[in-house]
Each structure stands twice: as structure tokens, then as C-alpha cells.
Amino acid sequence: MFVGSGRIYNISKISSDHSGEYKCRSINEHGEKYSDAVMLNVMYAPRNVVVSITGSGVIVEGDSVTLICSSDSNPPALNFSWFKENQSSAVGSGQSFSALQSGRFYCEAHNQHGSQRSDAVTVTVKGRLVILHITVGVICGAAVILTMLIWRSRMKKKKDTLETQMNHFRPDNDIYTASDVESTDPLYENVTMNVSRPCEFEMTEPVYENTMHEKP
């Protein structure tokens, strides 16, 4: 990639982006020739220091969570220090750190050109009893919802069955019968309605007989 011309190439405000191999090319009327390459290695202090958590950051009391510190630097950072917010002294060292207690933790990466600290991450430690209560609560809630769904389904089925049987009519004896085959209560198992026929009236005419009276 062509970067400049002239016998001297000057780089101002040098940064890590300028690292790499450089060579020059000389040209005259008889031809051209390239020089040997030289390596430009730009050193810089750690930057973009980040802490990552293996897991969710929420652990049960007695367990641990691992924090890992990473950075961009040249040469690579070899020294890492771990701190807990509101504490002046380090709580650990090395690129990884196992947190056993709640709090906000951050790391500092170091090389011979400087250092930089990361943003803090939160670790939450919960007691086993709290975790147990949460688990039981979730299970109980799911059981209640399932029970309500089953109850509604059965009630709907019973209602549909009752409506179907109530609409059944037997014309031979004018009796409507509705039975709930799933009911366990004997008081409500069978419902029978009798439709009485209108009263029939029979009128009879009096009979008059001829009566003869004989004198003695």
C-alpha cells in the first residue's frame, strides 16, 4: 500500500495503526528497485480493558463465579489486579479471579507502558434458602395455573353435555330426561321433568226414567 513519496517519510501522531513493515522504491530512467523492509512496532499501554463473567453473575452461597480480564496492549499485559468497589487494596491478581461474595468488581491491566482499569461488574450471592423459596414458589404457581385450566376444561365439558341432553326430547311419553354421567353427587345425577297432560272433563247427561204411580 502506497503511503507517501520523497526521500523522507514522516509519520506524525503515530499510533498502533502505523505498526507494520515499510520499504521504499527508487526509480530512474533505467529502472526501479525496492529496498529491504523494516519493521515498525508501536508500543502502547493497555486499553479496552473488559471483565467478562462465566455464567449469570448470580450464584448460590458457597459457590463461586469466575471473572476474566482482557485488554488490548503491546506488549500484551502480563499483570492484572482485581479490586472490589469501595476497597482500596486489591482482592486478587491474575487474568482470572474467583468471586465468592456479592459486590462490584473490576480489574486493572498493566504493562511497562502504563495501565488501565475496566468497568465494574456485579456479582450477587444468594442464600440457599432464598433459592429454595424461589423454586417452590415457581412450582406452586405452575401447579395452581394447571389446576385452574383442568377445572375450566371439565366445567365446560359438563356444561356442553348437560345442554345436549336437555335438548333431547322423547315424544312418546312427553318426558324430558337429562343425566350427568360424570357427576358423583346422587342429588344431581338425574333431572326428570314430567309434562302433565291437560285435565280431561267428562260430562254425562242425567237419565230420566218414566215413573208410573198406581193407585191401590
Fold blueprint:
Layout (H helix, E strand, L loop, with lengths): L19 E3 L2 E4 L2 E4 L3 E3 L3 E10 L4 E3 L4 E10 L4 E6 L7 E2 L2 E4 L3 E9 L2 E4 L3 E6 L1 H39 L8 E5 L10 E5 L22
Parallel strand pairs: 6-13
Antiparallel strand pairs: 1-4, 2-3, 5-7, 7-10, 8-9, 8-11, 11-12, 11-13, 14-15
Pfam families: Ig_2
Keywords: Membrane, Transmembrane, Transmembrane helix
InterPro entries: Ig-like_dom, Ig-like_dom_sf, Ig-like_fold, Ig_sub
Overview of the structural elements:
Among the domains are: 46-126, Sandwich (Immunoglobulin-like), CATH 2.60.40.10; 128-160. It has one helix at 128-166, and strands at 20-22, 25-28, 31-34, 38-40, 44-53, 58-60, 65-74, 79-84, 92-93, 96-99, 103-111, 114-117, 121-126, 175-179, 190-194. The chain is of the alpha+beta class. The strands form 5 sheets. Strands 6, 8, 9, 11, 12 and 13 form a 6-stranded mixed sheet that branches. It has a 3-stranded antiparallel sheet with strand order 5-7-10, with no helix packed on it. Strands 1-4 form a two-stranded antiparallel ribbon. Helices cover 18% and strands 36% of the residues.
Distance between the amino and carboxyl termini: 168 Å
State the share of residues found in helices, binned by percent: 10-25%
Radius of gyration: 49 Å
The low-pLDDT segments are 173-211
Q: Architecture of the domain at 46-126, CATH level 2?
A: Sandwich
Secondary structure class reads alpha+beta
Kindly provide the name of the CATH class of the domain at 46-126.
Mainly Beta
H/E topology pattern: EEEEEEEEEEEEEHEE
According to CATH, what is the topology of the domain at 46-126? Immunoglobulin-like
* CATH homology-level superfamily of the domain at 46-126: Immunoglobulins
Indicate the mean pLDDT.
78
Q: Tell me, what's the shape? A: elongated
Q: What is the number of helical segments per DSSP (H or I, 4+ residues)? A: 1
Number of strands: 15
